[in-house]
Amino acid sequence: MPLWTLLGLMAGNQTAPWPLSDGDDGQAGLLGMPRYRPEKCADGCEACAEVCPTKAITLREPGQGGGRLNVDYGRCVVCQLCTEECPTGAMTPSADWAFGVRRREDLVWREHPAAAQNASPSTAAFRRSLHIRHVDAGSCNGCESELQALNNPFYNLHRLGIFFTASPRFADLLLVTGAVTYAMREPLRATYEAMPEPRWVMAVGTCAVSGGIAEGGYASGHGLEGVLPVDVYLPGCPPNPAAIMQALLMFLGRKPQRAKGGQLVE
Amino acid sequence: MSTAEEVAQKVVLMKPDDLPGAAREVLVGGGRMQMAYAWYPRPGRLELRYLSGKAVNLPFDIWRCPVEGRIPSLANVWPLLSWYEREISDLFGVEFTGAPDVHRLVLHEGVELPKPPFASDYPPGHTLSLKTRQRLLPEVAGAERDVQLLPFGPVRADVLESAEFLFFYIGEAILFYQPQLFFKHRGMEKRFEGLTAERAVVTAERVSGVGSVAHALAFCQAVESASNCLVPPRALFLRVLLAEMERLYNHLHYLGHLAHTTTLKVAEAEGKFLEERVKQFNGRLTGSRLLRSILTVGGLRHDVGPIGWLAEELEALRKRYAIYARRLENTDSHLDRLITTGLLDRQVAIDQGATGPVQRGSGLDRDLRRDHPYAAYDKLPVEVAVRQAGDGHARAQVRMAEIHNSIALIQRVLVMLPDGPLHADCKVIPNSEGLGWSESPRGTLFYAVHFDANGKLSRVKIKSPSFSNWRAFPFTVHGSNMMDYAINEATFGLTIAGCDR
User: Fold this and answer.
1) B293, A154: Cβ pair inside 8 Å?
2) Distance CA B452, CA B461 (A)
3) pLDDT grade, residue B451 (50/70/90)?
4) Residues B341 and B446 in one domain
5) pLDDT of B187 strictly over 50
6) Of A20, A133, B55, B423, which one has the greatest count of Cβ atoms within 10 A?
């Protein structure tokens, strides 16, 4: 009979010091949202907009200022096609994955991001204890894979006082993945209705934010748009576990919101 | 293959009345029906396609059958075909005469359906809705008062995919079990229509997230087959490396989750920690923990990062895994819950189309990597793990052996990896078609692709392994008991996204 407890003790603490202190967040080498540099954009070029699978990049009407492109990171599936097609380096690969925001418009690129106003969080009482009910509303299982990783010893989400709960009756936050299929719309609403107030909603993954790759079509929706009020948006395909933790801590007021106006600001 | 005519030796034209005889011939010969789907070769002209294999390592046969008049159901010869026929009925409105089960499958009962979703006159932009929510339930005769119904889902405990499980039970004993799947049906196959092949790889990667490589690979190979395109050797070897990294993190997750159901906390943590290690390797190699955005038609989009560190890290992982596996196999409380649990009879596995580690745990020695090699598998020693017992332990043992084999394969690739180009230009031939496959961590995955006159995709059919295994799984639950259910389900290692699409 093997002594599992002994094995566990011998393995020692496997948990990353991040995010409680500086150190390895485990995401070395990962690509995040492509970075938009409007000054490099060439007139008449539409390469990135043409190749973008989810219309995250569209051409602006002339005369609007602030670059030639509308870049909506709430629609980006991180496929990197734009960074490969762009001939001038206006779209470049980056490690910018900490894209959890409170307001949808903070996912859209803007010239002067500092002007963004942070909505003041009403979550003070939940800072050290948050219970989450997850609902898969039609995902590819990629987001679930990364959400499940949060409870592995490397991330060990529990140490932050954040727990997944089985019953919506005990939940403070409804965490939704997937584009919201026609068959999941009602179960999703019923779960939300079963939650006590105050209750919040977090859209995890580009599908839940805007529909993602499956958007439209006969069975798939546009994410939570028009389905439930959303308090935290985290695009990504899928967002990595560190991005999910960062967004949760941001929601609880324990970390600053890093993405504003579609770019990371320090 | 390119056009149907050029590959006449593989594509056989059949009349509806020829189908039952041909299906019986496959059965008698020890072959297997692999999938069936419908498509429109021309507007208003519907055609059925059947994929069959006469024997394990013989080329696949494709049967085409125009939908004219009465189409006989083949589900009485090949029970596994019942789900394909019901899917075709839902999405194309075709009826099969003599079908044993005519209920809806991929669309839910109570759906408001203006036209079948794949029909050309389906209103563009229309999203389905449910008139009523209805459960598909068998009638319980006799002791109705003693039999209770437990509906569980679609929102279940923990971070899990959505599906509803219906149990008829008496006390601890499960009389009958019915999974209500397809809550997550996103209509993914139709999302491919009108796309270019390169662009569609991004979609294929997002059909089943934890099978991103297997899906992208099967899709790319289908397109490459349609365009007579040769992929350079370095890309072929790297495709094997990526596919085996995917198998590795999936199987480690499987063991961690299995230990969760047998309540071995440290073993759960260890399995999931090892999975996390591999996902972090994936990130360093490709920029994506799920190995996305690297495969493309004709090869790879970019090279992997420097891989000097990988051999050493994998060796360290292998050593740590070997200790873990040995301990799992010596833990009585774990084994007690697996041995004799969820018995899948060999014949049931054949009839219902079980695939991957599930069928190999029931004594069926099949693996596409060896039997129908793709990428660089023909140049590598592929060992196929098979167990005879058919229980949960056998299924777990197959996966455990595959972890060792995957690490060995990757190490071999690292030694053999040739230099050279990563990508060949593939010119899509208008009106061509192709078939691609891969042995995903969960079993056989097929993509059939059809291009239109403009070289855009006109039809893509995806046969995912979980679609096959979900069909077989309930046969191991009827007559079992509640305490074993979660463990048995974990031994199957099913995904729902891939099945529902």
Assistant:
1) no
2) 15
3) very high
4) yes
5) yes
6) A133
Is the domain covering A124-256 a CATH 3.40.50.12280 domain? yes
Whether residues B71 and B213 share a domain: the answer is no
What pLDDT, on a 0 to 100 scale, did the predictor assign at position A118? Answer: 55
Instruction: Write the ipTM.
Output: 0.94
pLDDT in tens, B85-97: 999 999 999 999 9
Break chain A into its structural domains and give their ranges: 124-256
Tell which residue, B360, B354, B358, B363, has the closest CA to residue B388.
Answer: B363
At residue B59, the pLDDT reads: 85
CA of A81: which chain B residue's CA is closest?
B293
Spatial separation of the C-alpha atoms in residues B464 and B84, rounded to whole Å: 12
Q: How far apart, in whole angstroms, are the C-alpha atoms of residue B376 and residue B300? A: 14
In a domain, B486, yes or no: no
Would an 8 Å CB–CB cutoff place A25 in contact with chain B? no
Same domain, B275 and B387: yes
pTM for the full predicted model: 0.94
Query: What total number of domains does chain B contain?
Result: 2
Contact between B160 and A144 using a beta-carbon 8 Å cutoff? yes
**Whether the Cβ atoms of residue B352 and residue B80 lie closer than 8 Å to each other:** yes
Q: Tens digits of per-residue pLDDT, B105-147?
A: 999 988 988 899 999 889 988 999 998 877 878 877 766 678 8
Would you state the structure tokens that stand for residue B224, as one six-digit string? Answer: 């490459």
Candidates B186, B195, B261, B277: best to mutate against A (most CBs of A within 10 A) is B186
Tell me if chain B has a CB within 8 Å of the CB of A253. no
Q: How far apart are CA B196 and CA B215, in angstroms?
A: 16
> Of B312, B282, B279, B311, which is closest to residue B411 (Cα–Cα)?
B311
**For chain B, what is the total number of helices (H) and then of strands (E)?**
16, 14
Question: Is residue B83 one of the residues assigned to a domain?
Answer: yes
Measured CA to CA, the distance from residue B2 to residue B222 in angstroms comes to 10
Closest Cβ opposite residue A164 in set B128, B129, B158: B158
**Residue-number span of the structural domain to which B74 is assigned:** 11-130
Give the integer Cα–Cα distance in Å for B500 and A20. 39
Query: What does the pLDDT look like over A129-184, one tens digit per residue?
Result: 999 999 999 999 999 999 999 999 999 999 999 999 999 999 999 999 999 999 99
Q: Is the dihedral of CA A75, A142, B206, B156 positive or negative?
A: negative
For A225-244, how does the pLDDT look when each residue is reduced to its tens digit (9 = 90+)? Answer: 999 999 999 999 999 999 99
Distance CA B83, CA A190 (A): 30
Q: What is the overall mean pLDDT for chain B?
A: 93
Q: Do A217 and B190 count as a contact with CB atoms less than 8 A apart?
A: yes
User: Residue B241's domain is classified under what CATH number?
Assistant: 1.10.645.10
State whether B118 and B211 are in the same domain. Answer: no
Pick from B175, B147, B148, B177: nearest CA to B164: B177
Q: Residues near B120 by Cβ (< 8 Å), separated by ≥ 6?
A: B40, B43, B44
Q: Is A166 on the interface with B (CB under 8 A)?
A: yes
CB contact under 8 A, A213 and B206: yes
| Predicted pLDDT of residue A2 | 65
Residues B302 and B408 occupy one common structural domain: yes
Give yes or no: residues B103 and B212 share one domain.
Answer: no
- State chain A's mean pLDDT as an integer: 90
| Boundary (domain end) residue, out of B97, B112, B130 | B130
- Return the C-alpha torsion angle B101, B102, B107, B109, nearest 10: -100
Q: Is residue B190 part of a domain?
A: no
For residue A189 the two structure tokens come to 């609403």
- The answer to whether residue B254 is domain-embedded is yes
pLDDT given at position A65: 62
The span from the CA of B417 to the CA of B129, in Å, is 51
Co-location of B107 and B256 in the same domain: no
The pLDDT tens digits of the residues spanning B212-247 come to: 999 999 999 999 999 999 999 999 999 999 999 999
B494 vs B55: which has the higher pLDDT? B494
